[in-house]
Specification:
2 copies of one chain form a homodimer.
Chain A: H1 2-14, E1 33-34, E2 46-47, E3 53-58, E4 65-69, E5 72-75, E6 77-78, E7 83-87, E8 94-102, E9 105-107, E10 114-117, E11 120-127, E12 144-152, E13 157-165, E14 179-183, H2 199-208, E15 216-219, H3 235-238, H4 243-258, E16 268-273, H5 275-286, E17 293-297, H6 322-328, E18 331-337, H7 344-357, E19 363-367, H8 374-385
Helix pairs in contact in A: 2-8
C-alpha cells in the first residue's frame, strides 16, 4: 500500500514533466484573473486559484504556439479568430520567468511586463501567495529607488547601481543611515531586487511597521570584468572578475560620499541570492573590517560542492577561528527554499555542518514550498533585514 | 525634365510605402553594427550606415516573419538553420519603436531592450544621429533618476513619477533647486523621458559644460482619471481626466516637501511633448502663479485644429492680453520636427500666428530631418533647458 502511494506521488510529481504537457481541460477551474505584472490594460496572461497560468496571443497564421514556463512547453489551441490560448500545470506561488514559443521562435509575451533574468529581458508572471501582504504596494510612506550611473576605472566602463533610500531620508536631512549591499543571482542584474524582488516595498512595509531600522540599500551588478590592458589581450584575461574590487574600492566610497551613510562596519551589511550569496560571502570574509552582517539566500561559497568542507583550506582558512568570527560578525544568516533543486540543499547543508563544527553562530530560515526563485528571496530579505543594525557589539 | 525629376523624387518617397516593402539586396551596404539599445550580448538588431535596420530571429517552423518598423512590414528570409533575417528601408536618425511579426503574431524582438510607447512595452532601436553627442553617456558627473511612488487621493490609486536630481544635489545639501515638470506624449508614460528620452544624460552633459543651470526634473504620468464615486458610475465619468489637479494639488506639494526645491513660480518650468505639450500649455495658462517657463515640443493646445484661433474663446481667453503675458511669462518656447506629419505643422503654425497677432514673445525651434519621434524631443529638451532659470523679471 505504501509503495502504491509512492507511485501515485511520483506520478503527481512527474505530471510536471515534458510527457504531460497537455492539461486536462475538465480539471481547470474557471476563475482566472489577469496577472498583477501585466502591461497596462492587458487581460492576458491570467492566473487561477489552482495557480495555473493561462496565456493567449493572436497568431492567425501560426502552426504551433506554446506557453513555456517552469521548463515545460504547454501546447496552446487556436480559435476561429486565430487567437491561441493555453494553460500550464499549477505553478509554485511567487514570481516566474516565462515565454511564448511561436512556430519555433521563443519570444516575450506581449501581455506581460518585462524583467531581466535567465540572461534576457523577458516575460514574468506573479502567482499570488498566501503571504504576499509583506511585499504588497500599500499606502505607507515610500522610499525612493534611484538609478545611479557611474564610471568604473577597474572595468573601464559605465556601470549602474540602484539605491533605495527610506522615505524619511529626504526629510531628516541630517540623519545618517546604515547600508545594506544586496546582490542579484546568476544571469540577473542590478534591476532585479527592486523590480521582481520587491526590495523597496518589503522595506517600506517593514519600516512603516517599525519592524526594520530605516536603511539604505545598494543594488549593483555582480558581473564586473577587468578592462583588458591592450587590445590583443586574450579572452580569458578579459573575463577576470573584479566585482569584489569594484564594490570595495569604487562603489562603497562613492555611496559613502553621495549618500548620508554611517560609514563603518557596524552599520554595513552585505547579502545576495544564489551567485550573489556566494560572491558576497567571499567579500564579507575578505573584508570583516568593512561589513558586520551577512545574508546568504540560496547560496554559499562552497557552491556547487556538497562535499565535507576542509576548513583549513576553504576560503583560505577564513572560517578557522570560530571564536574570533563570533565576536566580529553580528549576524551570519542563511536562507533556502524547501523545494530548491540539486545542488543547493546539500551544498548549503555541507556549509552549515562546517559552521556547526566550528561553533560559528548563524541563523537559518527555510521558505516553505518555494524553489530557487524570487519568492524564496523576497522572504529571505524580509526575514533578514528585520534583524539588521539593531544590536551593538 | 523638371517633371521627370519630380516623378523620381515621388518614387523615392513612395519606396517607403507598403508596396515596396521588399528591399533590394544589392543596394545594402554591409557595415551593420548592433543597435546601442540591444539587450546585453545580443548582436541583433543591427543598423548600417544607410540607417537600415537588419533584424534576425530563429523561427524554424514559421511560414512568414516580418520586421515591422515605421508603419511598414518588411519580409524577412529564412536560412537553412531556420534563422530569419531582413532589412528595412533607411530610417530617420534617432529612436524608433518597432516589432516583429511571426506568422501573424506581433511580438517584441528578443534582441532589443524594451520601452513604453505606442501603448505597449516593446522593442526600440536607435539610429545613430550626427548630433548624438549631446545625449551620449559620458564621463561627467551623473545625476540620479529616482522612482517615486505615491498614493493619489484624486485618482484613488498608486501613481509614480521619476525625479532627476543633478549630481551636485547630494553634495550641496543646503542648496535648493528650480524644477522642470516634464511630460510624455500620447500612449507613453512616466518612464519615457529618462529612458528613450535621455533627459538625464542631456542634463548631465549640459550641466557639466555649464550650459544649463542645475535643476530638478519631475516626470509624471499624464493619464490620471478621477476615481468613480461609486461602483455604478458609468465609464464616461471614470474617464474624466484630473491630471491638472493631480499635478497642482498632489505632485507639486509632494515634490516641494520631499526635495530641496525653490518653491515659487520664478523657479518652476513646465513642458511636454505632443499630448504633453497640449496638457502642459493648459496647465501653464491656468496656473501662471505656479510656473513662469513653458516648453511645447511638437504640440499646442489647439491640437488637432489648424483653423485660425479665436483668441477671445481659445482657452477661455487666456491669450487675450499679450502685454500682461509678456510680463508674466519668462519663456514661451515651441519646437517641431521638419518631417512631422499632419496635423502638427499646420496646427502649430496656426498657434504661432495667434501668438504673433497678440504680440506674445516666444521662441521657435525646428529639429532638422526628424518626424514626430524622440530625436525631435531630445533636441527640443536640449535647446529648452539651456534657457531655463537664467533670467529674472
Amino acid at each position: 500500500m505504501k509503495q502504491y502511494l509512492i507511485v501515485i506521488l511520483w506520478m503527481l510529481i512527474l505530471s510536471g514533466g515534458e510527457g504531460f504537457a497537455q492539461t486536462n481541460p475538465t480539471s481547470i477551474i474557471e476563475d482566472f484573473k489577469p496577472s498583477s505584472v501585466n502591461q497596462p490594460q492587458k487581460l492576458f496572461p491570467k492566473v487561477n486559484s489552482q495557480r495555473r497560468v493561462r496565456a493567449s496571443i493572436a497568431a492567425p497564421d501560426a502552426k504551433k504556439v506554446q506557453l513555456d514556463i517552469g521548463g515545460i512547453k504547454y501546447d496552446m489551441k487556436k480559435d476561429e479568430n486565430g487567437v491561441w490560448m493555453g494553460e500550464s500545470n499549477p505553478q509554485d506561488e511567487g514570481f516566474h520567468y516565462y515565454q511564448l514559443n511561436i512556430d519555433g521562435a521563443s519570444v516575450p509575451d506581449p501581455g506581460s511586463l518585462y524583467f531581466y533574468g535567465a540572461g534576457r529581458w523577458g516575460s514574468g508572471i506573479e502567482i499570488p501567495s498566501g503571504d504576499q501582504d509583506f511585499f504588497a504596494l500599500k499606502n505607507v510612506p515610500h522610499g525612493l529607488v534611484s538609478e545611479n550611473i557611474y564610471f568604473s576605472k577597474l572595468t573601464n566602463s559605465f556601470r549602474r547601481c540602484f539605491v533605495y533610500t527610506p522615505n524619511e531620508y529626504n526629510e531628516n536631512t541630517k540623519t545618517r543611515y546604515p547600508v545594506l549591499y544586496l546582490q542579484h543571482g546568476s544571469l540577473e542584474d542590478e534591476t532585479g531586487w527592486s523590480s521582481q524582488g520587491k526590495a523597496n516595498l518589503i522595506l517600506d512595509n517593514l519600516i512603516a511597521s517599525k519592524q526594520a531600522v530605516p536603511m539604505i540599500i545598494v543594488m549593483d551588478n555582480g558581473y564586473a570584468y577587468k578592462a583588458p590592458n591592450n587590445e590583443a589581450a586574450d579572452n580569458n584575461k578579459q573575463q577576470e572578475s573584479v566585482f569584489e574590487d569594484v564594490l570595495i574600492t569604487e562603489v562603497i566610497p562613492m555611496i559613502d560620499a553621495k549618500f548620508r551613510t554611517i560609514p563603518k562596519r557596524e552599520s554595513r551589511a552585505i547579502a545576495g541570492l544564489s551567485m550573489g550569496a556566494n560572491q558576497t560571502m567571499r567579500i564579507m570574509m575578505n573584508h570583516l573590517d568593512t561589513f558586520s552582517y551577512y545574508g546568504g539566500f540560496s547560496g554559499t561559497a562552497n557552491y556547487p560542492s556538497s562535499e565535507v568542507i576542509d576548513v583549513s583550506s576553504f576560503l583560505d582558512g577564513k572560517f578557522k577561528d570560530g571564536t574570533a568570527l563570533n565576536k566580529q560578525i553580528k549576524l551570519f544568516w542563511l536562507g533556502l527554499g524547501t523545494k530548491e533543486p540539486v545542488p543547493f540543499p546539500k551544498s548549503i547543508g555541507a556549509f552549515r555542518k562546517m559552521l556547526e563544527q566550528q561553533r560559528i553562530k548563524y541563523e537559518y530560515y527555510e521558505s516553505p514550498e518555494t524553489a530557487h526563485e524570487w519568492l524564496t528571496w523576497r522572504r529571505c530579505l524580509h526575514q533578514f533585514v528585520a534583524k539588521l543594525f539593531k544590536s551593538t557589539i
